[in-house]
Amino acid sequence: MAVKKNTVRGEEPESNLPLWFNEVAGIALIGVGIILTLSLITFTPHDLPILSIGGVIDNEPNIPRENSIGVVGALLSFFVLRVFGAAGYLLPIGMLWLGIAYAFMGAKFSKRTVIGLFCFVLTGACLLNVTEVLTEWAARNYIFEPGGFAGLWLGTNVLEALLNKTGAIILLVMLYMIGMIMLTGLHPIQFSKVCWANFKQWRVKRANDRERLAEKKGKRSAREAERSARQLERDNAKAETKEKAQEENERAKEVKAKKAALAKLNRAEEDKKNPQVEMELKEIPKPQIIDSSQRRNNKREPGAKPFERKKNPDAISLSTDGFENYETPGFDLLAFDESEPEDEGMDQGELLSIQKTIVDTLKAFGVEVTAGDITRGPTITRYEVYPSSGLRVSRITQLEADLARATKAERINILAPIPGKDTVGIEIANDNKVAVPLRELLQDEAFTSAKNKIPLALGKDVYGNTVIGDLAAMPHLLVAGATGAGKSVCINSIIASILFKFSPDELRFIMVDPKVVEMQIYGRLPHLVVPVVTDPNKVVAALRWVVNEMEKRYRLFAKCGVRNFDGFNDRPRPEKEEPVVVEPEVVDETAEEEPDPEAIESIARALEDGELGPIGGGDDDELDMEEEEAEMPDRFPYIVVIIDELADLMQTAPADVEQNIARIAQKARAAGIHLIIATQTPRADVVTGIIKANIPSRIAFQVSSALDSRVILDTKGADKLVGKGDMLYLPPGSAKLERAQGAFVSDEEVEAIVEHCAAQSEQVFEPSIQESIEKGGSGGGDENDVSDADEECLLKCIEVITTEQKASTSLLQRRLRLGYTRAARMMDILEERQMIGPADGAKARDVHI
Ligand SMILES: Nc1ncnc2c1ncn2[C@@H]1O[C@H](COP(=O)(O)OP(=O)(O)OP(=O)(O)O)[C@@H](O)[C@H]1O
Known about the structure:
The protein is of the alpha/beta class. It binds adenosine-5'-triphosphate. Adenosine-5'-triphosphate binds next to α15 and β15. The chain crosses the membrane at residues 20-43, 69-102, 114-131, 143-162, 169-189. Belongs to the FtsK/SpoIIIE/SftA family.
C-alpha cells in the first residue's frame, strides 16, 4: 500500500528497475528473511567453537550444531546479534515484509524502504542499549550489550553522552517511529487516530449494548411481571368462576329439590282428588301368558240344536205349504272330535324367549318398552309391550321389518296401540295353527243370544272370544280376499249359521254363482227362492226381482202402517182360522188407523224418482198390484242374496249390476232383504265406490297388496294376514277392525246340513222370479212386460238410433252405459214395435224411424 501511494504522489523518482527485478528481490528477501529468522531463533552461543577457543564460553561447543541453518546460520545469527543486539530480530521481520511486498503486492524497490529498515533496526538497538533492557539476555547469549555494537556505540557512547539518557530515548523513539513508517508505509498518527476513534466507537457501542441489554432485561422483566400479573388475574378469575359455578350448582340443586318436593306434593294432592292416577311403568301388572287357541268343547246331548223352531201352523210365508213340520239341523251334523281339545303343547319358554327378543330388539334401537301379556290365539300370538312414557308408538311401527328379522317371523303385524288398550301389540303367526270349528261357535251363548236376529258365526279373535255378526244389523256384507285365503269357507259358515236357525218360511236365499261350482252344493236347499243362478246374464233379472219384491213389501208395509219388516211380521193380527185375506178397504182403514208417515214418505219419494219399479204402468200392472194387495201374507221371510264372485257380474253388465245392488243396499234393510257379496278381485272397478258406500260391514281375508286391502277396508292390514281363514272384520257402525280366525266348516258338514234341510221339505220356487229371470236371461220378452223404466230407457234408445241412423246392441251399450242384457232387450222391443229391422247376420239392421 505504501509503495503504491509513493508511486502516485511521485514523492520519489520512479524506479526504472524491470519488473522481474522486483520479484527476484522480493523472493530473495523472503528467502534470506526466513534463513535469518530460523538462524536467530535457533541461535545458541555453543554452536560457535571459536567462542570456546577464545575462552568466552567455558562449556564444550555443540557438535553437531543446534542451529537449524548450521554453521552459517550460527555465524550469521551471532553476527547480527553482536551488531544489533536483540534488535537483530527486527531485521528478518523487515526483510520478510519487504520481500512479500515486492514479490506479491506489486511494490517497487525504493531507497526509502531500505533506509527505513536500517533506521528501524538501528534505532531499536540504540533504544535497547540506552534503556538497558534485556541485559541479562545479552549476557546469557554472550552478546554483551542488549543493543549490540550499534547500540553501544551510537546509543550509549554518542547519543546518551550528548543528550543524556532522556534526551537520547526521546530522540531514538522518534527515529524508531519514523523508521517504521518509512519501512511499512503506515502513518502511525493517523493510525492512532483511527485506532482511537475505533476505540471510542467501540466504547460507545459497548455502552449502548449494555444499555440495550439492560433495557431488554428491563423489558423482559416488565413483560414477565405483566405476564405473571395477568396469570394472577386469570387465576383469580378462574377461582371466582369456580366459586360462582359452585354457588349456582348448589342453588340449582336447591331449586330442583324444591320443585321435586312441590311436584310430589301436587301428585299427592292429585292422588287424593283422583284415585285413578296414571299408571307408572313400575306398576305395570305382572305379564301373563294366555292361551286362547284351545277349543271349548261343551259336549251336548244327541240331537241338541242351537235353535228350536217355534211351531206356527197358521204361518203363511212366501212359500207356505210344506214347511210346517220343518226341523232345524242339530249339532250332530257337525264334526265333533272328543279327543280335542288337547293341549298342542304351547311352549311357554319359547313364547317368553320371543318376547325377550322383541323387547331387546326395540331396546337396541333406542325404544324403551316393558314386556306385557302374551296371548296365543288360534292363528297368531299377540305380544303386548308397554311403551315408556314419552315414547311415540309410531317408532315401534317403524321397526316392523327389524322385529320380523329378529323374531324370524313369516309375517308380523303391529297394532300401535291395540284399540282400547294402553299397550302396543306385536302379532306373529303361530307355527301350529288351530282351526276354529263352526260347531264351537254355534255352541257359544253369543250365537244363540236373542240379541242377534240373523246371527252369523264368523270366527274367534286372538283372546278366544267368539266373533258373531248379526246380518240384520249389518245389513249387508262384503267378503273379499285373495284366492285360497278362506272366502268360500267363510261363506259356507255364514250359510250354515243361517240354516241352523231359519226354516225356509222364515228365510229364503237367492244364490248367484257365476263360477258355477262354488254353490252347487246348495242346489237342493228348500230355502232357495230360485235355483242357484249361474248365468251372469240372468243375474240382473234376479236382482230386479229383488228390487220389485222390496218395493212390494214397502207398499204392503205402508198399507199395514208398519215401518219395517219386524213391524210387519209382529203386527197384531185379527183372530182368524182361515188364512188372512185382506180386503183393500180393510187394509186402507188399518193404514189410516196407524199411518207411518216416514215410511210412506220414503216410498212415495222412491216412486216419484222412478227408483221403485212399475206402478201405475198399464192396466195389467194395476191388476197385479190389486191382486198382490188383496192377498197380504201373514209374514214375510227374510231374503238373503248371496253373490259369489262379483267380478264376473261386473264384467257382464257393470252399470245394471251396480245400480241394482246399490238400490237393494240402500233400501232393503227395512224390507228384511240382505246382501252378501263375495269377490276374490278386490279392485276399485269391481268393488266400486257406490257398492262400498252402501255396504258398511266387511270381511277381508289375506290379499296380496296394501292397495287391495284399502279397496276392501279403506285401510291397510289385510296384506299382513296369514291366510287360511285369518281375517279382519269390520263390524257395522264401527271403525275398529277385529282380527279373527274364521270358522271352519268342511264340505262334508255342509253337505250333511243341506241333506238334512232337503229331507225336511220339497223345494218350492217362486214362479214370478223364475219367469222374470227366464225373460231377462233369454233376452226375450213381449211388449206387455215393458215397464215404465223400460219405456224411459226405450225413449233414450230411440233418440240414439234416430241421431245415429244405426241400430245395434253395442251402440246402445256404449252410449247409454247399459248392460248387454238390457241393451239386447231394448233392441228386441224396438224390433217388435217395428222401429228397426230384424237382425241379418253381420249386416246392420234397418232403421225405420
Ligand atoms: N277358517 C278356516 N280354518 C282353517 N282352514 C281354512 C279356513 N278357511 C280356509 N281354510 C283352508 O284354506 C283352503 C282354501 O279355502 P277357501 O276354498 O275358502 O278359499 P277361497 O278364498 O274361497 O278360494 P277360492 O276363491 O279359490 O275358492 C281350504 O281348503 C282350507 O284348507
